Amino acid sequence: MKSLVLIKGFYTSTLFCLFACSFSSLFGSSYTVLLSDFTSQLDDWGGGADYFLSTQDAIDPGNSYFREEINMFGGETNKNKMVVRRPVASNVIASDPWLGDFNAKGIQSVELDFNNWSADEPVYLRLALSNVTKPMISSGTWWVSTTYATFLPGSGWGSASFNITEAEMKRVGDFNGGFGQDTFEDTLSDIKGFRFIASSSGDSALGDEFSGAIGVDNVRLISTIPEPSRFAVIMGLLATISLLRRRRR
What we know:
- By secondary structure, this protein is of the alpha+beta class.
- The protein has one domain (30-248): Sandwich (Jelly Rolls).
- Helices cover 24% and strands 30% of the residues.
- The protein is built from five helices and 13 strands.
- The protein has helices at residues 2-27, 90-93, 102-105, 184-188, 228-248; strands at residues 31-36, 46-47, 50-54, 65-70, 83-85, 107-116, 123-130, 142-145, 149-151, 158-163, 169-172, 193-198, 212-223.
- Helix 1 packs antiparallel against helix 5.
- The longest helix is centred in the N-terminal third of the chain and has 26 residues, at 2-27.
């Protein structure tokens, strides 16, 4: 009789632990749903200057990253802003997994590794999001992070993280100084503009003028919703719990 009680106690404890772990995994965790590590391709990231894959001064020797050289050889107008962005071509926006309905995807933050090789200019790195592709389009609304990560000249590789919440982002003007009227939630439901910018003030999605080389690696989009494979594992664990309970009866 005593052994039977012990066995029942063991099963009860096991079931409780499994359920607690499953519940925590399903509802209390964050997940990397997208990753651009630039191992072999640019993965549709671009910029306003010359950008390419490079292994020069990489985080890990021989491991490529996104490198952008901005205003390095003169004053061409297309080389004076520090911007790293998703594509703006209309024929690829709808299929871009980094864009779309951030509300439905449960997107809560974005992380990346960054390096500033400029000789004398700091980067105040911010995240900018919009329901239009470019600040030159006046029909949408842009939001820029109020927090920023500072990368001084010759900074070396470091990490940056931005929470995608209304409390940590603010509505900013477009190229013509106009402010969109979309709410933060409405904007997140149709993201078409996704960019990292250098901005000391955070008052625009255009980015500050900059001269130097920058590096970006391991861009991660973080969600509260697990990817399908992880969700399947959790569901399998819950099914196991259910089976164990039925066997006890």
